[in-house]
Amino acid sequence: MSKLDSKIPEGTIDQKWSKYRSTVHLVNPANKRSLEVLVVGSGLAGASAAASLAEMGYKVKVFCFQDSPRRAHSIAAQGGINAAKNYQNDGDSTYRLFYDTIKGGDYRAREANVHRLAEVSSSIIDQCVAQGVPLAREYGGLLSNRSFGGTQVQRTFYAAGQTGQQLLLGAYSALQRQVGMGAVELCARHEMLDVVTIDGITRGIIARNLITGEMEKHFGHAVLLCTGGYGNVFYLSTNAMGSNVTAAWKAHKKGAFFANPCYTQIHPTCIPVSGDHQSKLTLMSESLRNDGRIWVPKKKDDTRKATDIPEEERDYYLERRYPAFGNLVPRDVASRAAKERCDAGYGVGNSKMAVYLDFAFNTARYGKTEATKLNIHNPSQEDIMRLGKEVVKEKYGNLFDMYQQITGENPYEVPMRIYPAVHYTMGGLWVDYNLMTTVKGLYALGEANFSDHGANRLGASALMQGLADGYFVIPYTLGVYLSAEVTRMSAEKDNADSIDKLKTNHPAFETALKEQTELINKFLNINGTKSVESFHKRLGLIIWNKCGMARNKEGLTEAISEIQALRKEFWSDVRVLGSADEFNPDLEKAGRVADFIELGELMCKDALHREESCGGHFREEHQTEEGEAKRDDVNFAYVAAWEYKGVSEWELNKEELKYENIKIAQRSYK
Amino acid sequence: MSTGFLKTSVGKKVLMGLTGLFLVSFLVVHVSLNATIFMMDGGQTFNSGADFMAHNPVIRIVEIVLFAGLIIHILQALTLTLANKKARPVAYAKIDGAANSSWYSRSMGILGSLLLLFLVTHLSHFWIDTKIAVFKHQEHNTYLEMKEVFSHWYVVLIYLVGVIALCYHLLHGFQSAFQSLGLNHKKYTPLIKKVGVWFSIIVCLLFAAMPVCMFLNIVQ
Amino acid sequence: MGSGHGTELNLTLKVWRQKNTKASGSFETHQLTGISTDMSFLEMFDVLNEKLIHEGKEAIAFDHDCREGICGMCSMYINGRPHGPKNGVTTCQLHMRSFKNGDTIVVEPWRSAAFPVIKDLAVDRGAFDRIIASGGYVSVNTGNARDANNILIPKDAADEAFGAAACIGCGACVAACKNGSAMLFVSAKVSQLALLPQGQVERKARVLKMVAAMDEEGFGNCTNTGACEAECPKGISLENIARMNRELTSAALTYTK
Lengths: 670, 220, 257
Fold this sequence. Notes:
- By secondary structure, chain A is of the alpha/beta class.
- Helices cover 39% and strands 15% of the residues of chain A.
- Chain A folds into two domains: 1-263 and 426-494 and 504-662, 3-Layer(bba) Sandwich (FAD/NAD(P)-binding domain); 269-420, Flavocytochrome C3, Chain A, domain 1.
- Chain A has a five-stranded parallel beta sheet with strand order 5-2-1-9-17, sandwiched between helices.
- The longest helix of chain A is centred in the C-terminal third of the chain and has 30 residues, at 462-491.
- Helix content of chain B is 75%, strand content 0%.
- Chain B contains eight helices and no strands.
- In chain B, helix 5 (108-135) crosses helix 7 and helix 7 (153-180) runs antiparallel to helix 8.
- The radius of gyration of chain B is 19 Å and the shape is globular.
- By secondary structure, chain C is of the alpha+beta class.
- Chain C folds into two domains: 8-119, Roll (Ubiquitin-like (UB roll)); 125-254, Fumarate Reductase Iron-sulfur Protein, Chain B, domain 2 (Orthogonal Bundle), CATH 1.10.1060.
- Chain C contains eight helices and seven strands.
- Chain C has helices at 41-54, 126-135, 155-165, 172-176, 183-195, 203-216, 227-231, 239-254; strands at 8-17, 26-36, 77-78, 81-82, 104-108, 117-119, 122-123.
- In chain C, strand 3 and strand 4 (81-82) form a beta hairpin.
- Classes of the chains: A alpha/beta, B mainly alpha, C alpha+beta.
- At the B-C interface, helix 1, helix 2, helix 4 and helix 7 of B face helix 6, helix 7 and helix 8 of C.
């Protein structure tokens, strides 16, 4: 008997959610006022969940490590958000979004969850527009769309190259409205350090006030982890510097299973590494692939400038290999293709670890259209490029500026140099249909859970999932659990030592607080010789080299022992200065890196066990003759949910994936 | 309008802008009257204008309003400056103000104080004498008095400093008043800014011309 | 690795150190050698901090997160200007190629009574959150929205609202203003919602509440120097402040409740 019950409702796929939603238990308004919900993380999932739950009447507390909830890393999402609105009349539908997402995820996601996601996608756009989110418009005043990788319809809504920012500020303003009304208590610059469970049931958290260093106990009837992904395990990623796995990892150690940790997304279009000083990588939005063509020289080690290489000596390798989708193949495919070219010696730039993303062709195309609009007959090449550049600037101005800031090169004149970089993690805490982890009362939303993207996420789907979970899923599914809590509370109401009376005075809170305080002191007392940063860098290098875009048995086995050795070295030789009772960013980082090291080991273990290639997980031993990923649906059509059993010890639990509505097939974008 | 409005930071700005623009309108009258000396009629037009200004009951009421406006402008400026000092209790060690704003926009308080000092001198030169004359029902030849006052080089110098202070105060103040009142529009703001610059320069040149020309005996 | 364009700089860094909010701070001088011009300003700080830790000294605390100019967390006052010598960028987007070999760089925190220093270069900008909480939203509960295309919004209005909404809440406007005024920040939110049909219902109440909240936080008063606009990394325009002045005046004249 599996320990995993996904609680997928009965019924046909298109009725599961609507029927479930209308039949689950509810919590009446009076009872909501006495139920406390702790939301950890304030990105799209956290802010939208906290605002929605507070609107419903729950008592909510929000925690974020940043100085304001508005800084959560959802803010950096550039390209857009998908929704099955079919505003473009190009054949989109809930089913097609559902299908694209399952296929894009390489048939490793749960059907029921993905269908629900596609169903609520439309409401997200409605909700955001009602909040005053300025999504891009056409001249007639209607919403505008663009296309993204892995799809053949235009369903992506956007706000220039700052869609995540605008959506997050929308959710943030909804959250702040509740803060202003006293329905939400905001705890900024607080980091969750542990989940407090009593008899296996979540009762609250331990958090550290990052300014004063004070350790705090917070009681909650439910805890929602909306803490994002763990991409920073690679050290270099497009994640924010503070993005971390600590909350999810501590939950994992308290009994929450960690699912598919090896599914990590390497985004194909990032600015290449410029040197050893590099602290993070910057993404160039996937939307650029709408108008940019990716190429490398046909000749190996070609040292000519990009603009000096004639058309016939350029290899548009994505268009060559995948004529149907061309430059718009999904991210995993595009990334591997770039790596393949660079490894084969066709890379560009001084590092040779980059390919060109070239806008000249489409700039000229736009220029010609503009010239026609302006009634300029026989425009000169100069005019065409000038007019075209104006169009490109309007569409991608901020991204081009950003590129120039970082590289010192002008992308309007020369092609961008890009290379894949870690961007998103599909894996995360295992959750059931209600988004509850394997620990009762503990939920995971957004990137922090594993649920909707399978082995590869399509562009513009992360924003959709974060907001779907927060605005339209958790407000219903949380009631399933809390309605039972109400019953329990009323049964225990005369009980003097019930948790509802004791709250944070319960000894379990004291124990957890003591443990975490000791952990903090341990960091400070090691007094070693190496900085926290240096351990993080070394960890990142191991994982990038051996558990990155391509993996094999030998490398993964090596990686596991290297990480174990690194962990030992960390705990005996790390140097953390300053004290516990003050603002101490280095101490914060120490805790995060310690958790990353443990997670890194599990990632490699998961990648090693999955003897197939699927989505972002590419095992060199499992590829077709053409170098495409080769899935093994007979043996690996399951979610790998790892149960923590102690240092370096995990037990594998499997949730079989059943495809009842989509015929499982080899993914092809040719 | 509730009194609450004037207590808000926006209300205070609006009041500064309104009183400022009101004082600007006074400058127009003042400078027009001054300009009559260039009619070269021995100050006849000028004196009759001055006489009218001194005796007309409407003008005398306006004069009270004008002083009220001036006092409000000054008091408000003082309150704002003090509040602004409090808003940054620890000063920066290094400031590169020129990189983001003009020096005179950042020096309105100093320019205004200079103007106030100048105004005291100016009023003691002319306005008090005129008032005494009006009070005693005596004839008063302001033109001749001017010729006398502006025959001293140091007085002319003080006036020039005052006028330069006024010019820079206006360069920022004119368009700033419109901005404070919310009168900003893509189409018209560039025009307002241009008018502001020309207004400041022309008005101040005219003001400066009077003492200089009298000192150099260009105006007879 | 490396694009190879970079050369190396030797620099003198004068950095503000302050133990906590109550302590009084002072400058500390550091010499740095071999700083690549390809580094970002914050990566230069990473190098310095690694050096300090190696020497057994506490690292310099500073705020930063996304390092791509959008989260608004980084906040250094560099050589007399918020976010340093380049226009239109945040501190994290500033690269060392903007400096010359031998330069002395003075780094201070945002200085404002409303932004108390937490430690070294990190300040508390909670005042901004409280201002938004006072009214910087459209009151629409989840699930109440009608179809998004039922609200027609002219493209130019949407674009203008977006221009105001692009504010990242970094506080450079306050830091740059000689009066420590927060008007650019507040007016950006007021403008965004005043320009859109969705914001009309609460238009008057919103501006009254937000300005009152701003005044309560202890920010200074705007004197239209325009420093905020010039230093804003996202190019938020002064027009927004004029709009807020207009909005507030009209609300104060007509709003009853």
